[in-house]
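Tokens for chain A. Residues wanted.
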């Protein structure tokens, strides 16, 4: 069932350990199949570099395991709530990458002090209030505070990114950590003024319309 999607999700998981290294079992990836609406998600507690497509778990939007011999991620309820509320999304990635999570731990948004931040996110990466792990509460906070962004921090927890595919959500997770690291270092050097809102909007629009290859 959904063999191609399971293979795509399993390939992304070892990469979680590269951004940053050493997370081992921390974080998770999921993807929703547009046709069946079923969700492929990583299993709970296994080292990412050992996961294969056969280890992925297929669940319904209600949380029932449809296929898989392993227990799904402890964050499954969070992923499913996002998918139920946001039918436009087909990929969710959760990480505890250290620089972005440092902002989350302090309850601080990642400010727009880089043009790359403006390009990709069109504003700061906001922090949603703390919610208990293991249920849909985190998903509710994410949906409520995500807005038009593709990334959000959860206070005292970590990072969630979303996209129209698992690959897009993963790319965003990498960008978030890179931006957080650069911003963190810059803030150690002194005061950093944020880019004005009007310029953020202009560069974000330009990036969305002109970046990459267009047909």
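Reply:
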């Amino acid at each position: 069932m959904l063999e191609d999607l399971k293979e795509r999700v399993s390939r992304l998981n070892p990469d979680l350990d590269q951004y940053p290294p050493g997370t081992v079992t921390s974080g998770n990836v999921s993807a929703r199949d547009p046709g069946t609406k079923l969700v492929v998600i990583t299993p709970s507690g296994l080292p990412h570099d050992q996961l294969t497509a056969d280890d992925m778990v297929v669940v319904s939007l209600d949380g029932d395991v449809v296929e898989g011999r392993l227990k799904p991620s402890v964050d499954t309820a969070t992923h499913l709530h996002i998918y139920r509320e946001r039918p436009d999304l087909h990929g969710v990635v959760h990480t505890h990458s250290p620089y972005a999570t440092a902002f989350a731990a302090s309850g601080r948004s990642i400010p727009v002090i880089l043009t790359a931040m403006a390009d990709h996110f069109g504003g700061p990466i906001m922090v949603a209030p703390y919610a208990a792990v293991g249920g849909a509460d985190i998903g509710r906070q994410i949906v409520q505070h995500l807005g038009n962004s593709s990334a959000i921090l959860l206070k005292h927890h970590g990072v969630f990114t979303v996209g129209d595919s698992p690959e897009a959500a993963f790319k965003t997770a990498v960008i978030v950590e890179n931006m957080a690291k650069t911003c963190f270092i810059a803030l150690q050097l002194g005061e950093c003024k944020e880019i004005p809102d009007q310029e953020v909007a202009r560069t974000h629009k330009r990036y969305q319309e002109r970046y990459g290859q267009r047909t």
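The chain has a mean pLDDT of 90. The longest helix spans residues 166-188.
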